[in-house]
Design a protein that fits this description.
Layout lengths: L1 E2 L9 E4 L9 H14 L8 H7 L4 H12 L5 H15 L7 H12 L4 E4 L4 H11 L7 E3 L12 H10 L6 E5 L2 H9 L3 E4 L1 E2 L2
Amino acid sequence: MIILEFPNKKYEGYIFDCDGTLADTMPLHHQTWNQALTQHGAKFEFTWKLMQILAGMGAKDTIAYLNNKFKENLDYKVIHATKVRLFQKGNTIVNPINDVVNFAKECKEKDLPIAVCSGGCKQNVHKTLNLLGIKNLFDFIFTQEDVNKGKPDPEMFLNAAKAMKTDPKNCLVFEDAPKGIEAAKAAGMDYVLIEHKK
């Protein structure tokens, strides 16, 4: 289950992360990262804790971080292509994070602007949203291909606010990852942390 704690304020726009926020896909992302890294010669263990630290970052920044931390020379393009292929193959059934998805639907019913901002690649994010049956719910969908700098940089969130024609300080972000929370803060936005409770 998750706990949703809302700030006591009305907002003009709502921004949702995808993986771990709208969709329960983080275990599959962890599995496919491990498979892709191992397949291409990584000599370290890509632990669940490490993925949680990096969650929200785009693949290019993730590989750069791993190369620096573990003194590797991993090829971003090759690993990312493998990871996307494995995720697409394994991503056939997606469970929604119901409380968040239902809130997004309520926003849509009230004609409030809503956007997705994900550090994932466009191909994976769009497939995940389609499998959930909610892609058409969102006015705008931003992924790592749409920005120069991914989370924790605020560029993606600021672009979403501009697209929704809302002031960043009047936007509320739904995020499960530390890098996403950093980006929300840097954008001057309030946020709801999606905490997964066992």
